[in-house]
TrEMBL record:
Name the record gives this protein: ATP/GTP-binding protein
Length: 65
């Protein structure tokens, strides 16, 4: 499952698994998680939009693999 978080709704700081940098509040980004039968919302991760688009060639950082 993938959802876009608009800047106005981005109220917390998250760490992007694509680059291991913080996503500051007020920055639009993407949140992704497995479907409920494969893990659900407890496994959701917040990604910078650019990192999400590049995930096929870069993958997550070692911290998240």
């Amino acid at each position: 499952m993938v959802r876009t978080v608009p800047a106005v709704q981005a109220t917390k700081v998250y760490r992007c698994p694509g680059c291991d940098h913080e996503i500051q509040s007020g920055i639009a980004h993407v949140v992704a998680w497995p479907e409920a039968e494969r893990g659900g919302v407890d496994e959701r991760r917040h990604w910078h939009t650019g990192c999400w688009k590049a995930r096929a060639r870069r993958g997550p950082t070692r911290r998240w693999s």
